[in-house]
Design brief:
InterPro entries: Sortase, Sortase_dom-sf, Sortase_F
Oligomer: single chain
GO molecular function: hydrolase activity
Strand content: 25-35%
Distance between the termini: 33 Å
Pfam family, one: Sortase
Order of helices and strands: HHHEEEEEEEEHEE
Largest sheet: 8 strands, mixed, barrel
CATH architecture of one domain: Beta Barrel
Keywords: Hydrolase, Signal
Protein name: Sortase family protein
Strand order of the largest sheet: 1-2-3-4-9-10-8-7
Length: about 220
């Protein structure tokens, strides 16, 4: 997935492998209609984050900053994610952009998920902490976010930071977008109310492109 266009960005959590018919039916099924979209939108502001500098001009892209994780320890990366309603306990790894492919990287093991390290950490008082994960893989089976589409408003989850602190969140929205239409500025924003954004794939699976058509986005707020 390149960072130069919206469709490629939104494919970051793609289960981009051929599936059995049974898996296709399960993974490609539509979730219940979107819930909490207005509340999710209200958490963000329209003001661009001043520290986010796109790699190229043109279409909206993932906000990528030069450098790696801060050495001073001020950023608190999530290291573990627990979502009891869908029976998820997953290791969270810091991820960025692949230097060779310009693609958003997620952990190769589908039972792990990736935190976008160029965005806010768990300590941040503003902005969207983005965690993306695979829905499935032909080789490895169900991914950590296989059941993400089942989350509903009021469900709770816990993100544990590198500082050992467990932070609780409450789901306020679940939305589904065609990958070319996902509002990236909202979900990768460094401003607005603090929130946790979980992203994976959904909708029908296209065997020709070996990708799902849509992205499932779950928004949660500190509780």
């Amino acid at each position: 997935m390149t960072v130069r266009n919206r469709g490629a960005l939104a494919a970051m959590a793609a289960g981009a492998a051929a599936l059995s018919v049974a898996a296709l039916v399960a993974c490609g099924s539509q979730p219940a209609e979107d819930v909490g979209a207005d509340e999710a939108a209200a958490l963000a502001t329209s003001t661009p984050a001043p520290s986010a500098t796109p790699t190229t001009a043109g279409d909206a892209s993932v906000p990528v900053n030069a450098g790696t994780l801060p050495a001073d320890g001020t950023t608190v990366p999530p290291v573990r994610l627990s979502i009891p309603p869908i029976k998820v306990t997953a290791t969270v790894n810091p991820v960025g952009i692949n230097d060779r492919t310009n693609e958003f990287e997620v952990p190769p093991s589908v039972d792990q998920v990736g935190w976008y390290r160029y965005g806010p950490g768990l300590e941040a008082g503003a902005g969207s902490v983005v965690i993306a994960g695979h829905v499935d893989s032909a080789e490895q089976g169900k991914g950590a976010f296989f059941r993400l589409r089942e989350l509903d408003r009021g469900d709770t989850l816990t993100a544990t930071g590198s500082d050992g602190e467990e932070r609780r969140y409450r789901v306020v929205a679940r939305e589904e977008y065609t990958k070319t239409k996902i509002p990236l500025d909202r979900y990768f924003a460094r401003d607005g109310s603090p929130r946790l954004t979980l992203i994976t794939c959904g909708g029908p699976f296209d065997p020709k492109t070996r990708h799902y058509r849509d992205n499932i986005v779950v928004t949660a707020v500190p509780s």
